[in-house]
Amino acid sequence: MSAVKSALVPIIIIKEIFDQKRELERILSKHQVNEPEEIEKGIEEGKLPEHPSYEDYLSALALRNNLEELKKLARDLIREI
To answer: What's 33-69 look like in SS3?
Structure first.
């Protein structure tokens, strides 16, 4: 990997963390919850409509998982420095 590409990787990872965290927060605040599972619970209890709430639930789960992986990558990069 070239030095330029190597230097850009941490910046890209950090940007992705911020972007995905912002999107996760948008989805959670839309449903006035703190965790994706609360969206699913709201659907099951009939407090939230199934559509588009279920899609938001799945997106929130994926975003949370992506954030965990991106944070691991960032920690690994910091250890290398």
So the answer is: CCCHHHHHHHHHCCCCCHHHHHHHHHHHHHHHHHHHH
Residue pair 32/48 in contact (Cβ under 8 Å)? The answer is no
Return the DSSP state at 2: -
Cα of first residue to Cα of last residue in the chain, in angstroms, is 16
Summary mean pLDDT of the chain: 93
User: To 10 degrees, the CA torsion angle through 79, 23, 39, 75?
Assistant: 0
Q: Where are the chain's structural domains?
A: 21-80
Q: For the stretch 51-71, what's the b/e string if a residue is b when 16 or more beta carbons lie within 10 angstroms of its beta carbon?
A: eebeebbebbbebbebbeebe
What are the pLDDT digits (tens) for 4-42?
667 888 899 999 999 999 999 999 999 999 999 999 999
